[in-house]
Design a protein that fits this description.
single chain; about 250 residues; Rossmann fold; three-stranded mixed sheet; about 30% helix
Length: about 250
Amino acid sequence: MASPLAYRLRNTVRLTGFEIVRTAPDGNMLASHLHELLALYGINCVFDVGARQGEFGRWLRGTGYRGRIVSFEPVRDNIRHLRASASRDPGWVVEPYALGATEGRASINVTNFTHFSSFRTPGRLAAELFADESRVTSTEEVAVHRLADVFDNVTRGIGEPRVYLKMDTQGFDLEVLRGAEEVLPKVVALQSEMAIQPLYEDNPTFDRAWPQIASYGYSLSGMFPVSHDPQLRMLEFDCVAVRDECSDGLG
């Protein structure tokens, strides 16, 4: 079994969208799944919520997706890197604020490794497994908007938006969905990072989060591990879901 340090390194790298492997991988299953899903459902706009420094956007372009990307990111230093990533891509838009259930301003915990930055506080397990990476180094007051209120603006120019909503907000995904309820019929599919063992205080785990997503009219499409603890128990996974009313007649 690999050492705890090796697991920390592998999990930290995996959180950025990359993978450390002993031998050549047999293919990225999430990339393959999304490539097929985006084509099948005619996705023409991807919302990247919790975009950090643009890792998902670059990865998405690598899968062959050429539609619009709208990246939402509130942390100042991340915004600077994100804008640099998107600067040469006319189809990639950066929105420098957070999404949530209500309009306003809120304090976000900025961590040493900014992927862990969150409106929630890193918990005991984060301290055990990612002590340095998840350490809160500062807080920032950021703007929070409801997706329903900004939807028309960020999809302007797309005749019939068919949206893929990717969320990686470190425990805040359900709040994003609550602020998007009026426009969810236009969200054809979504991706949410689900916790099995929560890394944050008050972080909803899969058994609580999935019923809420299903209640909005989505069915499970795929489950893709993000990280494990040293005993190979899953910490988090990416949950992909498709909207039921958009699935009729496909395939």
